[in-house]
Amino acid sequence: MTTASTPGKIILFGEHAVVYGRPALAIPVTQVHADAEILDSDSKGIWIHASGVNLHAELNTLPPDHPIASVIHNFLFLSRQSPSPFGRGVRGEGRFPNLQISITSTIPVASGLGSGAAVTVALVRALAAHLHYPMTDEEVNAFAYDIEKLHHGTPSGIDNTVVTYAKPVYFIKSQPIEIFKVGAPFTILIGDTGISAPTKESVTDVKKLWEADKSKWESVFDRVGEIAKSAREKIETGDWRLLGELMNQNHALLQEMTVSLPELDLLVEAAKNAGALGAKLSGGGRGGNMIALVEQEKAGEVSSALTSAGAKRTLITTIS
Ligand code: PMV
């Protein structure tokens, strides 16, 4: 039996502007994860079990663009095409063994916690290990980015990068990844609106705004990029208390991009009123999650305030 586990992620700064080449910061969220388990089997074919989405099916009965099927098809294709750099691979074996693949995930779907990318990465790592086709992190990341592009249009690649490396990442599209240092630990509270919102739609809407007035939106994205850059400096020097104001500024710019919602704004305000140092929506917006920067001793109080303001669940995560 082979298993692989991948954490969720949350974007701290820079969503949407990152699609236009500006930097963004994101961190892994290890309290939630996607897991893949692979067993050799006596039943013919490759059987997929994902109880969370009520899926029990043989690979070839699924449409090829099904999110899980597409990962397996792409992996089989890749492993047949390119020889493993380590010599021993599934290439050339012709037929694949009969497999039972189980996928479970505690990452809420379509809420900005990177569930799709985490399932892809867990599954491809489990396949690679089980079928003796070693893949480097760079290869896993590139593979997962191709899958993200299949399903999400024009993703920046931040989701697959953070969950692949499971490290705090300062991300600029198409550039080598930079892991950022954390000068002093700080605490983030994540509040879920419970509203699932496909990122593709908000990304498309921001693109329409940009197409209608490029110079205006380029300057908005520049401001977001400056915020992300400055946030990295504060985190690296341990001046994390100054991040709150940057979060508030970033949230205002996301509101301008029309990707917030009254439900998100309500949670952001509730967090600040309960003593958070700053708060913003996180990810694609129009639902999903918001984050708040809190002093550790205030986390419980702010979490209760979020629940009273309608959060369906909260998570506390410390970045160190
Ligand atoms: O909704 P999420 O957390 O998957 O984040 C999307 C982030 C965007 O910047 C809006 C899109 C992207 O591809 O970077």
The number of strands is 11
User: What is the string of helix and strand elements?
Assistant: EEEEHEHHHEEEHHHHEEHE
Largest sheet: 7 strands, mixed
| Share of helical residues | 40-55%
Q: Could you say which small molecules are bound to this protein? A: (3R)-3-hydroxy-3-methyl-5-(phosphonooxy)pentanoic acid
How far apart lie the N and C ends? 33 Å
Question: Can you describe this structure?
Answer:
The protein is an alpha+beta fold. It is built from 9 helices and 11 strands. The protein has helices at residues 67-81, 115-130, 137-152, 158-165, 199-212, 214-237, 243-256, 262-273, 299-308, and strands at 2-13, 24-40, 46-50, 55-58, 99-105, 169-171, 178-179, 186-192, 278-282, 289-294, 313-319. The strands form 2 sheets. Strands 1, 2, 3, 4, 5, 6 and 7 form a 7-stranded mixed β-sheet that branches. The chain has a 4-stranded antiparallel β-sheet with strand order 9-10-8-11. Helix 1 (67-81) runs parallel beside helix 2 and helix 5 packs across helix 6. The radius of gyration is 20 Å and the shape is globular. Residues 85-89 have low confidence and may be disordered. Residues 11, 15-16, 18-19, 112, 114, 155-156, 158-159, 199, 203, 283-284 line the site of (3R)-3-hydroxy-3-methyl-5-(phosphonooxy)pentanoic acid.
